[in-house]
Structures are given as C-alpha cells and as structure tokens.
Amino acid sequence: MLVALVDGHREVLTSLSADSDLELCLGFGSENGQGGCVLPAPLLSEVGALGFDIVLDLYPPEPTTTDASA
Questions:
Q1: Angle at 52 between CA 4 and CA 9, to 5 degrees
Q2: According to the model, what pLDDT value does residue 31 have?
Q3: CA 51, CA 36: separation in Å to the nearest integer?
Q4: Cα(1)–Cα(59) distance, rounded to whole angstroms?
Q5: Higher model confidence: residue 59 or residue 68?
Q6: Residues 3, 47: contact at Cβ < 8 Å?
Q7: Sequence-separated (6 or more) residues with CB below 8 Å from residue 23
Q8: How many alpha carbons lie under 13 Å from residue 35 in its C-beta half-sphere?
Q9: What is the per-residue DSSP string for the chain?
Q10: Which of 14, 24, 38, 61 has the fewest Cβ atoms within 10 Å of its own Cβ atom?
Q11: pLDDT, tens only, 36-67
C-alpha cells in the first residue's frame, strides 16, 4: 500500500506539499464501461494527511470495430 511505502517520509512529503502540488494518480478501465472502485475513508484520510490530491483517470472501453465486408 502506498501509505505504508511512504510512512517513513511523511515529514518530507508534508513539507513538499506546502510548495508543490502532489498527486496520487489512479487509473481505472473496464472492457464494458461498467464498474467502479471504492476509496475507503481511512485511505482518503491518510492520503490527505500527506498533502496529496487524488486524480482518477477513467478509461472508457475501446470501440469495437465491425468488418463491413463480412
């Protein structure tokens, strides 16, 4: 988990967030365009305490191509 990875660097990250925009980028895509994710409240609190914004990058399904000659 990201929070565990950066746990020993909280003070540095917090000081960086005072002068910089820190982002946690999360990507999500599905084959049929349906689905979602859950960001648990404790995770949001931890990430917020580090000064990170959360960016959700949603990927729509790829358009299907139809062979007109078939």
A1: 40
A2: 77
A3: 24
A4: 23
A5: 59
A6: yes
A7: 52, 53, 54, 55
A8: 12
A9: -HHHHTGGGHHHHHHHHHHS-EEEEEEEE-SSS-------HHHHHHHHHTTEEEEEEEEPPPPPP--TT-
A10: 38
A11: 788 899 888 888 888 888 998 888 777 776 66
Q: Which long-range contacts (CB under 8 A, 24 or more apart) does 8-16 make?
A: 10/49, 10/50, 13/50, 13/51, 13/52, 14/49, 14/50, 14/51, 16/51
Residue 55 tokens read as 């960016």
Contact 13, 46 (CB under 8 A): no
| Both tokens assigned to 6 | 């950066």
Can you read off the two tokens belonging to residue 23?
Answer: 């982002």
Whole-angstrom distance, CA of residue 7 vs CA of residue 25: 18
